[in-house]
Amino acid sequence: MKVKNICCIGAGYVGGPTMAIIAQKSPEITVTVVDINEKRIAAWNDPDVEQIPIYEPGLSEVVAEARGRNLFFSTDVDAAIDAADMIFISVNTPTKTYGMGKGMAADLKYIELCARQIARVAKNDKIIVEKSTLPVRTAEALKRILDNTGNGVNFQILSNPEFLAEGTAVTDLHKPDRVLIGGDLDSEKGREAIQALVDVYAHWVTPDNILTTNVWSSELSKLTANAFLAQRVSSINAMSELCEVTEADVQEVAKAIGMDSRIGPKFLKASVGFGGSCFQKDILNLVYIAKSFGLNEVADYWEQVILMNDHQKRRFAAKIVKTLFNTVSGKKIALLGWAFKKDTNDTRESAAIYVADYLLNEQAEIVVYDPKVTQEQILADLDYLGTRSEEENRKLITVVNTAEAACAEAHAVAVMTEWDEFKTLDWEAIYTHMLKPAFLFDGRRLLDKEALTDLGFEFYAIGS
Ligand code: UDX
Ligand code: ADP
Q1: What is the value of pTM for the model shown?
Q2: What is the pLDDT of residues 101-116, one digit of tens each?
């Protein structure tokens, strides 16, 4: 079976970039990305390709190449479902905020709505691909909804988790470490569906890097990969605190252990805490699944990764307060960076949100500069926490357009995101315009401690 028409439901950080690359690499396949969010689709269709709603290095070039040729963005979900022979589901699966599993389980309501819509609209056989990260056995739920409410057509369900990291999405998609496809290996139709998706990726991925497994292994592999990655960050962050009290340096420790080929050098960067839409959500999900099977030790083991991360964010904020003579009340503190990592405008679960919230509770005045995040987003992130009224947030937080403006007259500066441009700021000028002593807190170990101390800064970096 050759796929000619792909539909992707969900034009977010996963669906948008993934479909752009599939379209770029497979000119004979028509790819339509649909979303119920009209504003988002309008932005994907903006004639000025730099205005697409997701900032990712290299993405606008890919969209410019494929859009209008075989890549389309639309709000007409029904029409795209009807026309497609393969449908990717890339809708969001946030942590539940109500009822059973509140704060832990993944909320599958958007997935279920998609399944019901597909079942209602589909008039011919379709391959359904789970792209969103989902709890193990979601495919089974999808299949039951589709088979019981559909128009008697055949649905094959595949799990094809996305491993791209934001900020490097285009390179990750162009050269994936592996593509994982889970499906029903025991049936002829299942194997055909798997092969159809393998053929799509084979446009640019070598066969050795395409793994096929059963659906459950594929679903669980995604949660496991994210849990292991997050665990590495929490592990090095735990060591960063120990380094600070023992005069060891976490960067030196990371280098020393990373040269052990069994450990490896990547993902050992101590930080103010991991963020992003996946790590916390997926681990909570894992913890919930383990608990629901009565595996309490397994659940506790993974939950500790989250507890350590929360501790790291709080500890960084508390360090600022303690260093500023135990009070930040009425003091101006500049936060450089709001995104959860560099090269993205995504702020979901960003450490900056929690550090800002902590400092606002201590009555600080916060000024934020981030090269890619809008004021609207920053305020929305704080409002979402619900710690104080929207008016108060707007009174206490200012968003500015340059790092220099953020730091002028500040008592302290905190680096929250590792944007490259922060390395080459005119730190001498910034020092001159700050209140003294000028405190600088490097939550990303981005800056040169010696050079900045020489300029006169009171410098603190995580882990030394
Ligand atoms: C992650 C996974 O890497 C990816 O495979 C999956 O598909 C989605 O979740 P993402 O969240 O986009 O990707 O970015 P990632 O590079 O993993 O960073 C996550 C967080 O960990 C960021 O806040 C980052 O700053 C932090 N981090 C990462 C560290 O603090 N130290 C490190 O050494 C690495
Ligand atoms: P991710 O990081 O997983 O891509 P996002 O939140 O960036 O998550 O994107 C998910 C997108 O899915 C959102 O733009 C949302 O509007 C869209 N979406 C959710 N439910 C539906 C649905 N039933 N039909 C179409 N689009 C949907």
Answers
A1: 0.94
A2: 888 888 889 999 999 9
